[in-house]
Design a protein that fits this description.
With about 220 residues, this protein is an all-alpha fold. It has nine helices and no strands. Helix 1 runs antiparallel to helix 8 and helix 3 packs antiparallel against helix 6.
């Protein structure tokens, strides 16, 4: 099987974005052994952030929310129709029709015996559909832009700022100008490919930086 690789142009662009990110956080490319080790270690830390963020974004890939709402609305209509038809009909005639379909040569008595024997395994479609509707309602409330921004915050911004704190670039006693911190995080966003709609504001970034720095006094 051929393994998919990014195109040379895309790979080159990502490398350029990584270089800009390293430059933004003052990581050079000198021949000094200590600088070389620092660059290597920091790059690995950044790649780890990228790995977990990209994995979560891939898992969080979502269908069109309008389509999901239509699916939910269809379930509601089905539940309404089921109620109008009546549960007795489904538990009686439709269940018997199912056994007849699977056992075309069975007589009426045999079908009733099968229904009685397997009554404890009877599928309650109404219950299943009701649970599915509730699950979809919950998903609609907890997903979307707010959820994506939370992913960006928890898996990209916070680990990145924590890395800067560990490097001593940010501390409770050494506060970088908001613009400088924002530029660093924006370089991270560019490298990770975070969409504009899900990027945090400078105020939000500064607030997170202060909170993390206060929790890790240096």
């Amino acid at each position: 099987m051929t393994k998919h690789r990014p195109s040379p142009s895309k790979a080159g662009r990502r490398q350029q974005q990584l270089e800009k990110l390293l430059e933004a956080i003052a990581i050079g490319d000198s021949a000094d052994h200590l600088d070389h080790f620092d660059r290597y270690a920091t790059t690995r830390n950044l790649e780890e952030i990228e790995h977990y963020y990209a994995r979560q974004v891939a898992v969080s890939s979502q269908p069109d929310r309008k389509l999901v709402r239509r699916y939910r609305d269809t379930i509601i209509k089905l539940l309404s129709l089921s109620d109008k038809i009546g549960p007795e009909f489904f538990a009686g005639e439709i269940e018997k029709a199912g056994w007849s379909r699977r056992n075309p040569h069975a007589d009426e008595m045999t079908l009733h015996m099968l229904m009685e024997e397997h009554s404890d395994k009877r599928d309650n479609v109404v219950t299943v559909l009701t649970e599915r509707r509730l699950d979809i309602d919950h998903w609609l409330k907890t997903s979307g832009d707010t959820y994506r921004k939370r992913v960006v915050t928890k898996l990209a911004v916070e680990p990145f700022l924590q890395l800067l704190i560990e490097r001593g670039a940010i501390s409770s006693s050494k506060k970088l100008p908001r613009l400088q911190v924002t530029q660093m995080v924006e370089a991270l966003f560019d490298w990770l490919g975070v969409e504009q709609a899900f990027r945090l504001t400078p105020v939000a970034i500064a607030t997170i930086a202060r909170r993390l720095a206060s929790a890790n006094p240096r």
